[in-house]
Amino acid sequence: MLYMVRMEVNLPPDLDPTVRERLVAAEREYSQGLQRSGRIAAIWRVSGQFANYCLFDVADNEELHECVSGLPMFPYISTTVEALSRHPNALGATGS
Ligand SMILES: O=C(O)C[C@H]1C=CC(=O)O1
């Protein structure tokens, strides 16, 4: 199943810089693992915001939750999740 997830990151402004650096590095490693496995099919930064859109390609709601809740920054992230279905007018099998 495909899900478009918008993530807004709200790190505490007084977060220790060393902790912040570790969190950013851990987030990159985890996110790139999900991308390598294909569970994150695409990721975009929202220009001018500490936010992103991630296209997840996972089996079901449970796997999506597992992926998102495993993000090291999860405690600081607000998400909006939309499940995607194939558009009837799409030319390609994936809608792209
Ligand atoms: O920097 C972000 O937008 C937060 C985060 C969520 C996934 C990822 O790769 O980074």
TrEMBL record:
This is Muconolactone Delta-isomerase. Signal peptide: none annotated. Keywords: Aromatic hydrocarbons catabolism, Isomerase. Homodecamer. GO terms for biological process: beta-ketoadipate pathway. It comes from Ornithinimicrobium cerasi. The keyword Glycoprotein does not apply. InterPro entries: Dimeric_a/b-barrel, MLI_dom, Muconolactone_d_Isoase.
